[in-house]
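FIELD: query
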Amino acid sequence: MADQEAKTATRLDTRRVLPVFLLVFVDVLGLTVILPLLHLYAAAYGATPLQIGLTLAAFPLAQLVGVPVMGALSDRFGRKPLLLISQATTCISFVMLGLATSLEMVILSRLIDGLFGANLATAQAALSDITDESSRTRGLGIIGAAFGLGFIFGPVISLIALELSNSLAVPAFTAAIYSFVSILVTLFLFKETHPPSARRLAGLTAGGPMLMARYLLRPALGLLLLLMFAQQLIFFGYESLLGLFTLTRLGFLGRGNAALFIVIGLILVLVQLRFIGRWSARFGDRGLASMALALLALGLLLTGLTPDSPHPFYVRELVQRDLLAAAPSQTEAIIGDLGVDLPPNGKNSLAGVLWLLVALIPVSIGAGLIRPALNSLLTQRVTPGEYGSILGLSAALVSAANATAPLLAGLMFQSFGASAPFLVGGLLMAGLCFWSFAAIPRSTA
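FIELD: result
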């Protein structure tokens, strides 16, 4: 087993992988500067939980349209030009977010980013270009490690920017700066991984309006793609409403959520750099995916059972004042009652915070494993000329789930209480874990 792991490790070309890692890290750094605060952008304009879900759904809904096209175009014209287009659009969208004066402008900025922002899918395709089947899971795990590091440093930068300015506009402009840096990394350090000969092959096979149906109807791919969609539909309900859950259950604002993102990032980095390679060699990608689903189910259930006790320093009036004062634009549009219920005073303790920290462990490990494992299985079932297309389709299905999940979870949150989306999601994820044993083929077709 040790020999097999060593063999896997030597298959990765560090000189070619490092630029992909760097551009993803800097790009994710910009994203994670605003991610812990995105629900606050909406809440500051009086948005209800359902409207907050709509705000969070705007980006993946647009990606559902944009990512498959961008993925197929990267197969046809190369990874580098498509990365540059995606990153430039992301930078512009962050500037728009910082200048927003209404909930509609916040949503529009996320729509524009989603329509052209195929950064991750294109980077995954580039990683697939320079790895083989035995090293691809570990290679895709490198992108996960970049995400983990972004989750560590991005929220810290967000916290500092928010503390110094007390304005949500400043983190958005900070994210735009990091997005611009990612453009420079791609422009000067990234070397094209998809040669012209492969592009000509891709031109005959990739893209077209029947792309999704063509892959879904292939038995070796259809069940994997459906499993990717189903697990993401459940998980993004958790991910999109975690900030709202901690606000209404624990009284967390941007500072508390930033600390949670740091914990998540540390676990992601540990999993991606230390364990995913050896676990893939030991259990295979099929076993890795099933294990990830089981861990996600456990974490969601534990999250839903978090005690209803705000942190020891919570004061309801101060939280409401800070939330309203931090709006990007100091206009009358934000004056009035909030659209969400804050915890009452008098139930303060550490119980809820400690419980949630424990729940984050299995969720973070599962999240670090599931998509690299499933995407690796997908690339093993197509030709190299189809990597961009299949990973673009995978990302599109993730986006479809991401667009739907906040609305469903937000409606459940609003109708049945804060715990409902997490408890129901945990039970459904457990069902997917059992289904995965039949859904994931044992061998490459």
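FIELD: remark
Residues 1-10, 202-209, 328-338 have pLDDT under 50 and may be disordered.
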